[in-house]
Amino acid sequence: MRSDRNQSAPLGVKLAAAAGLLFLHLPILLIFVYAFTTEEKSYQWPPPGFTLDWLSVTWNRPDVWTALGLSVKVAVVSTTIALVLGTLCAAAVSGTKFFGREVVSLLVILPIALPGIITGIALRSAFNLADIPFSFWTIILGHATFCVVVVYNNAVARFRRTSGSLVEASMDLGADGFQTFRHVILPNIGTALLAGGMLAFALSFDEVIVTTFTAGQQQTLPIWMLEELVRPRQRPVTNVVAMVVVLVTFLPILAAYYLTREGDQVAGSGK
Amino acid sequence: MTSAVSFENVSRHFGAVRAVDAVDLDIRPGEFFAMLGPSGSGKTTCLRLIAGFEQPTGGSISIFGERAEGVPPYRRNVNTVFQDYALFPHLNVLDNVAYGLMVKGVSRAERGRQAEEALKLVQLPGYGARKPGQLSGGQRQRVALARALVNKPRVLLLDEPLGALDLKLRENMQEELKLLQRALGITFVFVTHDQGEALSMADRVAVFNDGRIMQVGAPQDIYERPQSRFVADFVGSSNVLPPEFVARHGGARRWASLRPEKIRLGEANGAGVSGTVRARSFLGATNRVTVEAEGVRLHAVVPAGLPLPDDGAETRLSWSPADLHLMEEA
Amino acid sequence: MTSAVSFENVSRHFGAVRAVDAVDLDIRPGEFFAMLGPSGSGKTTCLRLIAGFEQPTGGSISIFGERAEGVPPYRRNVNTVFQDYALFPHLNVLDNVAYGLMVKGVSRAERGRQAEEALKLVQLPGYGARKPGQLSGGQRQRVALARALVNKPRVLLLDEPLGALDLKLRENMQEELKLLQRALGITFVFVTHDQGEALSMADRVAVFNDGRIMQVGAPQDIYERPQSRFVADFVGSSNVLPPEFVARHGGARRWASLRPEKIRLGEANGAGVSGTVRARSFLGATNRVTVEAEGVRLHAVVPAGLPLPDDGAETRLSWSPADLHLMEEA
Amino acid sequence: QEMLKELGKGEGQVNIVAWPGYIERGESDKAYDWVTSFEKQTGCKVNVKTAATSDEMVALMNEGGFDLVTASGDASLRLVAGKRVQPINTDLIPSWKTVDERLQNAPWFTVDKVHYGVPYQWGPNVLMYNTNVFKEAPKSWNIVFEPMDFPDGKPNKGRIQAYDGPIHIADASNYLMAHKPELGIKDPYELNEDQYKAALDLLRVQRTLVGRYWHDAMIQVDDFKNEGVVASGSWPFQVNLLKSEKQPIASTIPEEGATGWADTTMMHVEAAHPNCAYMWLEHSLEPKLQGDLAAWFGSNPAVPAACKGNELLGEEGCKTNGFEDFDKIKFWRTPVSKCASQSECVPYYRWVSDYIAVIGGR
Amino acid sequence: MSASAVIPAHAPAILPSRGGIAGALSDTFWRRPKVLLFLMLLPPLLWLGIVYLGSLFALLLQSFFSIDEFSGLINRQFTLKTYGDLFQAANLDIIIRTVVMAASVTLASAVVAFPIAYYAARFARGKWKALFYLGIMLPLWSSYLVKIYAWKLILAKEGILTWFLDKLHLGWLLDAWLSLPYVGGNSLSVSFTGTFIVFVYVWLPYMILPIQAALERVPGNLVEASSDLGASPGQTFRNVLFPLALPGIVAGSIFTFSLTLGDYIIPQIIGTSRLFIGQAVYAQQGTAGNIPLAAAFTVVPVVIMGFYLWGAKRMGAFDAL
Ligand SMILES: Nc1ncnc2c1ncn2[C@@H]1O[C@H](COP(=O)(O)OP(=O)(O)OP(=O)(O)O)[C@@H](O)[C@H]1O
Ligand SMILES: Nc1ncnc2c1ncn2[C@@H]1O[C@H](COP(=O)(O)OP(=O)(O)OP(=O)(O)O)[C@@H](O)[C@H]1O
Ligand SMILES: NCCCCNCCCN
Ligand SMILES: [Mg+2]
Ligand SMILES: [Mg+2]
């Protein structure tokens, strides 16, 4: 849809949207504020004073780095698996009509449509039954499962928008299946995969509930935070970590936005 | 001489839908062949059968004498200009044109040279660096053409390539396409639902209806000697006259077609069939008058400048018997 | 008599783009008015100004004598048939047609009755329960028409309502629309970029270019007496002749238009201008011959049946001086 | 699995499930550190996972991956019955003989004369209160069980807390033992249907007074600071923590007496680091550690020698923490249906579901 | 056009197969697209269909086992006893409480999300559009846990909201609300109101994104058509925009509803100590070790979401996900 031409929003909509955004962001601002408070045990309002010390304290905490390392590794591997599985599924579902197509799309959506705790204890009891000890890979198993859907959704949407005649045009011009995939399909769904991958990464990176059940004693960053937030000691460290994560992800999010947007425009202009 | 494309009793059914139904067809090498027909009549499906995007459910297809069944599109020396052009949005114009050469492994320098040449051929030299999104419809159409031609196909398939262009541009492209085909000598198979386009461009026309070919022939044949009501009705804006009417006014008891420009309008009490004027439209060089006579609606085309009867007025229609074309269809 | 729609020096600029630029316009009550022009010439913007979707950046608009500025679309007794129909996909056909009555608070029974009647008017009785997605293009077009007409607007705006239909259907709809307009007596303002459509349907035509009106007049006026090169070129397929050419062959040193059907082709050594035949196309009732003469490309239209010169042959073109229309543009 | 016969080399680490505050390495307060030296001496790195309730401890041990757990009496026998812990070879723990005689053969970790652990600490569940509201120590647990106005004139509704664990039913029974003798409760962990029902009824009244139940010790500390909570059953640990932050907090054991806990360090059947685990068990009995911990947590040492000469605990420390009141404390145990004091008692699994129901408002 | 440049060579009309494994495979896949389809579906189906669904069924199976009351060990014999336990009044309370909360959270999220999505989809352009995108994505990227704790500070009795309202002399407003039955409590952080606010906050972006996507797909000229036919902006909203955004709302509600059904962290940190399904599952499997009852509890969201998805599918909400 093009935006309503030259019309500005009614005042009510503007106010409600502004209030909604404010609601979304004030608590995050608070997280930032408490990354600099001088008081460490419990958060007082207003903060008694401000300090930059927590930045260096955080930097020097080895447990932060281990948890961060594990979270990044988990997110990268889960996202990669989700990219492969989600793309395959999307390609199959949008490329052809086959019996059970609906079932497949439902199956992909299920892990995100069912509460995480169900995924969590289902996998956990399966691990128990199969005598699989908790490991890096048990975490991955959980995360990749619910990450598939975001990649799938993005890829399906793009496949739907990408004219099927592009693939035919490629084959018509002499490219076999592999060449067509390499030179036409991949470049056209690339940005959608990027956006889906980013969302998958975010989902994995911040996941607590499923992880609680599949991690055993390993600590991903959110699990570490949960532990840390219960302890009235150096609580601002968690805020510093949360703040840094937001700041560090700012640019990739923006980049993904512009990439997918441009992708859409180009895809739409093939007509 | 072997045909460029030959269909022997070819069918393509989709479940209950008979998109193409027992079609026999021979397209001659080097000819400009048009497939004409209303929407859903199976034209695109025929083209896709030639290109290899569809497999026949019955019959057999050969291209220059070689059997084509089971051969994937990328192994057929046939190229297509798609209705929506299907330009690769992520590649610039030059890379689009060079695509077929690239997948064949032609070196970058060489394919750049050939693509540049093809762009020159379609009068877009120097546009190589643009993205398809930055071109107008007519320009995209030419890029699609260059992209197909650069592969030197033996048959070029065009699926309503001018459908998305506006009238003015379309007329120009019609002329250009025809000149190009003459110059290259490549067999062109051209799909359209616009009878004017088919008549003015093609060497031969096949008229499709409901998955079947109703008539194949030179444009004049089709226009002047339609074999069936459908063809008469669809090609040109002929008046199709029912057997009773024809029987009453000098012909046999058969369906007949009567071209509007052959009808003369006269005084209400002159000779011929009398009727009431229902509408008049100005067509520029001519005026079209719609007359209702004996329950049949007839169109007469009168050169501009001649006097026109008023709306609602009584008038008489007359024609010379030779212009009444009796059809084979009973 | 007050105009149905009147523009006084109306402009609509989008930043640097002058979509509509200082336009004066009077549309008479009950007339079928066409806006004709190439893509981007400002036709849609004009229509949107009348409907109230756009506000003029300059000048003033009145509808039946009442100033329209600042009046939102839903308070104008003007309705629009959108180019892509803009049917509500979540409502069935009946509810689509009854929409305008519903928002006015007409009772369910009454609006059902009126909508059913409107559907009958556009020859779709009994289609009420279908969803728009289940209709063909032509049927959707009629629903859009019924949806607008049911509100009994004083002015009906149609933005290329036939653009998406195929030729055959389009011709039928042209006739139906015109009959309907005659019957209802509502002012129709009709946008198109198809000159044939504008000429055959409208009482008067405004030719747009670049946000300005180049000429307003009856179809014959526009076709036979274009005031500018642009109009001559755009309306009909007239030959536009440069001043030097005109000066050499009997006219003043002015741009002139010469209609192709007025050109006679003769023996290479007869009277007139000599040239080379470049192309010939069969148009059904006529043939068009493209001739290059003194560096100018000319089209001549010859009735079918008359002999045609061969491609590449020399020929002579002649016309009677009265048919050479000198334009105001220098 | 066989008991270890002799001590080998340390495996480099030991994983312990512990109550919060039980294993300190000077991070909360530099003075309280009984881990660093152990790690230096033995080369066994200590990894701690804290648990908020006994149920959580059992769950963590069921899950595995740990060597040791500081189990309370209501968890220890469950762990033994579930075969989650292994017998301890006391010969490998030289300090075993220094353990308080009252504890050496305590029934909550000794089954058929086999020891399934080493006593660690014990103490009462105290009544913690805000001294701004209570100028004098409250005398009865009634302030957290009955609706009333507090000395500051405002009602107790919303300003008290209770423990979010089924074992809290025992606190209610203990209160009823004193206030409804006609019920005939002899032991708060052994309730027949009527007694049990009375306890639940009391807890239902309490539900109307409690805003949120406390689950994590640290969260309770927050709630006393930020949520206006002024009285609650608690552990001495929270009391000490709040006091150290200069909060107006004190604690008492009211006249009804108190439930309490006696914790035992137990070893997982599949402990991956048994040598380090044994080293920790020996270390855990050092008088210095025992005294420091008692001072830190407000508990009592399992080694009487620790009461003397500990700088942090002070000479009176053990007395303050109730070292002499051992017999008055009703230590946490797992309620079972075959109970000693009457023919049939309500078993623990019903405590679990019914307590959830009470908190849910049933 | 000059034609001299491209002159067709007389190449064969049908080219030979390219050869090699890739060529042969490509030909095979083209000839037998079902094989390709099968190969594409195999990995995701193995993963989701076997690993995930398998685990899920294994879990559901456990709900037909029971726990031995004495030893706490699982008795692997088919029984419906656990379901009997599930339908005890206290557990029904938990289920109803959770479903009511999930429904309210969903409704409120939709109300709060709509204007944001609406503005972002239909009015924001250029920089503003990017800004809105960031404004919605950033909260999604900030730690879920830290956000919850931030809310704890806001909602606590001595927290920021009280402080702020006191400054505005509006403390009485809060007190009045807190004195209400059910939704009130001693402070917002120990009330259902608090739980509700935090749920809405945390899941809001999951609601905004699909609504925005749905609104972006509504052709602008439908709004114009409605207005053209005499509908005021309010009527246009009710009769056109809202019905067309509904699939997006339903898609968003799949997230908000399901996430609320299963969350156990938020109600534990902000709430009344009354359990929600997620907490009950967590407690039954973790602390009580009663896997069969935990499994039976999970059946509830599975069934609810099953119906929900079925309805959503019929409304075409999956396309808006
Ligand atoms: N893949 C398909 N599955 C089912 N039916 C199909 C398929 N492709 C085409 N058809 C049907 O076959 C018939 C012929 O279609 P085709 O596209 O060849 O018509 P066409 O003559 O090209 O029409 P148009 O002028 O509208 O492009 C139509 O009824 C169409 O619906
Ligand atoms: N909202 C807008 N913002 C900026 N430019 C606009 C806007 N609307 C129209 N224009 C520009 O105004 C000019 C006239 O547009 P308009 O849509 O009126 O043309 P048109 O004659 O209807 O063309 P077409 O035949 O392609 O529909 C074009 O250059 C167009 O790009
Ligand atoms: N952004 C963190 C919210 C956590 C949601 N997890 C979703 C997992 C789905 N099962
Ligand atoms: Mg077609
Ligand atoms: Mg327009």
**In the CATH hierarchy, what is the superfamily of the largest domain in chain E?**
MetI-like
Q: Tell me the number of strands of chain B.
A: 18
Order of strands across the biggest sheet of chain B?
6-7-8-3-9-10
Q: Alpha-carbon distance between the termini of chain B?
A: 36 Å
Runs of chain B in which pLDDT lies below 50 for 5 or more consecutive residues are none
Domain ABC transmembrane type-1 (chain A): 68-256
Transmembrane segments (chain A): 12-36, 64-91, 103-122, 134-152, 240-259
Subcellular location (chain A): Cell membrane
GO biological process, one term (chain A): transmembrane transport
Describe the structure.
The complex is a heteropentamer, with 1 copy of chain A (271 residues), 2 copies of chain B (330 residues), 1 copy of chain D (362 residues) and 1 copy of chain E (321 residues). Chain A is mostly helical and 271 residues long. In chain A, helix 3 crosses helix 6 and helix 6 crosses helix 8. Chain A has one domain: Orthogonal Bundle (MetI-like fold), CATH 1.10.3720.10. Helices cover 76% and strands 0% of the residues of chain A. The two termini of chain A are 16 Å apart. Chain D has 362 residues and is α/β, with parallel strands linked by helices. The radius of gyration of chain D is 20 Å and the shape is globular. In chain D, the strands form 3 sheets. In chain D, strands 1, 2, 3, 4, 7, 12, 13 and 14 form an 8-stranded mixed β-sheet that branches. A 4-stranded mixed β-sheet of chain D has the order 9-10-8-11, covered by helices on one side. Chain E has 321 residues and is mainly α. Chain E folds into 2 domains: 34 residues, no CATH class; 232 residues, MetI-like (MetI-like fold, Orthogonal Bundle). Chain E contains 14 helices and 2 strands. The interface between A and C is small, with 2 and 4 residues. The structure holds adenosine-5'-triphosphate (2 copies), spermidine and magnesium ion (2 copies). Spermidine sits at the interface of chains A and E.
Features:
heteropentamer; A: 271 residues; mainly alpha; MetI-like fold; 11 helices; globular; disordered N terminus; B: 330 residues; alpha+beta; Rossmann fold; OB fold (Dihydrolipoamide Acetyltransferase, E2P); 2 domains; six-stranded mixed β-sheet; five-stranded antiparallel β-sheet; 27% helix; binds adenosine-5'-triphosphate; binds spermidine; binds magnesium ion
What's the short version?
The complex is a heteropentamer, with one copy of chain A (271 residues), two copies of chain B (330 residues), one copy of chain D (362 residues) and one copy of chain E (321 residues). Chain B folds into two domains: 5-232, P-loop containing nucleotide triphosphate hydrolases (Rossmann fold, 3-Layer(aba) Sandwich), CATH 3.40.50.300; 237-326, Beta Barrel (OB fold (Dihydrolipoamide Acetyltransferase, E2P)). Chain B is built from nine helices and 18 strands.
